[in-house]
Every structure is written in structure tokens, then in C-alpha cells.
Amino acid sequence: MEWASIEGSPARELFRGIRLRTLWEGEGGAKAQVLEMEPGTCWEGLDVHEPGPEEVFVVSGVFNDGVRDYPAGSFIHAPAGSSHVPQSRTGCVLFVFYPEG
User: What's the CATH number of domain 26-98, 3.30.200.20, 2.60.120.330, 2.70.150.10, 2.60.120.10?
Assistant: First the structure.
């Protein structure tokens, strides 16, 4: 069994106001991460899910994929090859899992 905490996972700023913390990395590229988005932030460009799907759980705040809002408690499955533009007017924290990298 392995475990990690947000406090023990250094943040890497992807874009202004958008930080990524890697909690776990497994074989085959699988990984579990926490994405923190400050209010009013937007991903720069299109986020394409390759080589596999993306699983997202909205921990807090409201996440928007460029089409609709997902409040805290929402689960989103984005199949391999799909894309979106992550953003948040209110700010949010997401748990993101990539089973295939």
C-alpha cells in the first residue's frame, strides 16, 4: 500500500493560477494528481486526453470544461481522444486520475 498527502506533494505551476500536485505514479504511466485552479483561471489551449482516458472528481469549487459547470461532488469521465478547455470562474480543486497515463 502507498499513500500521499497534498501537503507532501510539491505544486508545479502549469499556467498562471493553475497548479498540479502529483500524488502517485504507477506502472504504464498511470497517475493520480490534484489540480488546483484559482478563481478566473483558464487552461492555455486544448487539453487532449492521450493515450488514455481522464477521470476527474471535483473536490471543491466549480469546474468548467468549456461547455458546462460541474459543482463539488461531480465525477467526470473523459474518454481517450476527447478534449476540453479546463477553467473555473470560482476556483476549484480536482482529483484527477489517468489509468493509462
Answer: 2.60.120.10
Distance, first Cα to last Cα, the chain: 20
Q: Name the DSSP letter for residue 16.
A: T
Residue 40: half-sphere exposure toward Cβ, Cα within 13 Å = 1
Amino acid making up residue 10: P
pLDDT tens digits for the chain (101 residues)? 989 999 899 999 999 999 999 999 998 889 999 999 999 999 998 899 899 999 999 999 999 999 999 999 999 999 999 999 999 999 999 999 999 97
Sign of the alpha-carbon dihedral angle for 28, 43, 95, 65: negative
pTM exceeds 0.90:
yes
